[in-house]
Each structure stands twice: as structure tokens, then as C-alpha cells.
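task queued by scheduler; priority normal; single chain, no ligands, no partner chains; default sampling; output format set to C-alpha cells
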Amino acid sequence: MLEPLIWFGFGTTGQTAFDILLNPFQLYTLPLADWISAGVNLFVDNFRPLFQAIRVPINGFLNSIELLLIGIPPSIFLLGVGLLAWKIAGRGIAIYSIVAMTLIGFVGLWQPAMVTLALVLTAVAFCITIGIPIGIFCGRNDRLEMIVQPILDTMQTLPRFVYLVPVVMLFGIGEVPGFIATVIVAAPPLIRLTNLGLRQVSPGIGEAATALGLNSLQALWLVYIPLAMPSILAGINQTIVFALAMSVVVALIAVPGLGLVILEGVGRLDVGTAAVGGIAIALLAIMVDRITKGIAGKSKFSALKYR
């Protein structure tokens, strides 16, 4: 009676064919982690001097933006932010912006907030510089979109902490690796929404532009991009929000700002300090989100006039 059970792999202490059939992964483990580590180490050994050279201009630009924002008197900054928000998003957002920044100042986090804002603005500017052109090329080329989409999927789905190890190995610790990691996380939404905005333009509009004698470049600049601008601005909005969220993660590699305040509070189990830092980031994120949505809303109204 036991022979059939033994033949099928039951009642034995050793590994049988049936055990292997149930769990084939115990036969062989793919050393993917070792391969990745070896590849990154090889890359670092050969190209780290190049990345250290790239670090210098990025660090200089970041420091310049920080010194500029920190050097502006808080009262002047509040006035400028209020006027900008009023012009773009209305009186309510202007009042909120002034109150939010005033609260950040009164809790003693004005300078860390300016450092975080400098990092975010610099990263967003770089994302716009590279993200919009890539999105435009993807929107006009199906084959390129098929290549780029899996890369964007990987960039967005990998845990954000994963990016910290290679950038630290290449650039060291500090603001520059934090900037690079922020760009990696924040750029994909802008690329995706730029691509989506161009593809949502009606083919009939493109045919009408061609009938009017516009070449492909003129049609792109005068027709497609203006009509896709609401989607592009929504992508910029998402990029800013992602960059602000990333400011907490990059504090792990000694990037100063509000994220470091939160990290220090967590490290000391000081719930007050951590909560104040988190509230400051939330206030900044809401302010920037509402202002950029105001820009997108106006652009949408403008674009509709051309339809």
C-alpha cells in the first residue's frame, strides 16, 4: 500500500521527483543580485571620475539657487509668492500661500524649506528640460514609445530607496545624488502625460494643419503642443509633487532640508519634530499643487478656444 505513495514522493525523507515538480525553485537559484552588484561595481570603477566631474556643475547650480532663495528676505518672498499665486490661481490660493509660508517660518523651518524648495525647483527644471522633449518624441513615434514605456514602468515601480545605492556609489553623499534620484523618480509622469496629451489631439486637426500648408514641425509647434498643453502642465504638476515627496527619501543620504528634519525627528523618536517637518512639506506641496493647477486650468481654457 505504501509503494504508490513512495513512488509519488510521499512517505520519504529525501527529495523526490514529485517534490521537485511541486517546488522547482529549490533546484537552482538565479544569482541576479550578484550579477547586478558586479555590473554596478564595474561601472563605478570605470566611470566614477566622470560622474564626480558631472557633480561639480550640478552642485554649483544647486548652491546658487539655495543662496538665492535663502538670501531673499522672508517678507519679500511672502509678498512675491502671494502676488504670483493671486495672478495664477486666484485670491484664495494667494491667501493660503502666504499663511502656509508664514506658518513654516514661525515654526523655525524657513531655511530648511528654502533648501527643499531649491532642490525641488532645480530637479523640476531639469525634468522639464529632458522630459517634455522625450514625451514629444514618444507622442510622434510609436516605436520609440514602445521602447520608452517599459523603462518608465520600471522607473516608477521600483522602490525609491533602490535608487539611493547606485547614485551614492557614483556621486557620493549630499545634494547632488539626491538631485539625481529625485529626477529619476519625478520625470516619468511628465514624459507620460506629454506623450498622452499629443496622442489625444484629434487626427482631423492634424489633417487640417497639413491642408493649411504647415509642415510637421510647424504643426507640432503651432497646433499639437498648444492643444496638449493642459496635459503637459498636469505632468509638470505631478513632477513637482513627486519631487517634494522624494525630498524625504533623499534625506537618508544626507540631503539637507525638510526631509532631514523629519529623519532626525524619527531617529530621536521626537514625534513633534517629525510631525512639524511633515506638515511643512504638506503645506509646500499643497501650495505648489494649487498654483500649477491654476496654470493648467488657464491653459486648458486657452486651448479650448482653438478647437
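post-processing summary
- Confidence is low (pLDDT under 50) at residues 1-13, 301-307.
- The first helix runs from residue 2 to 7.
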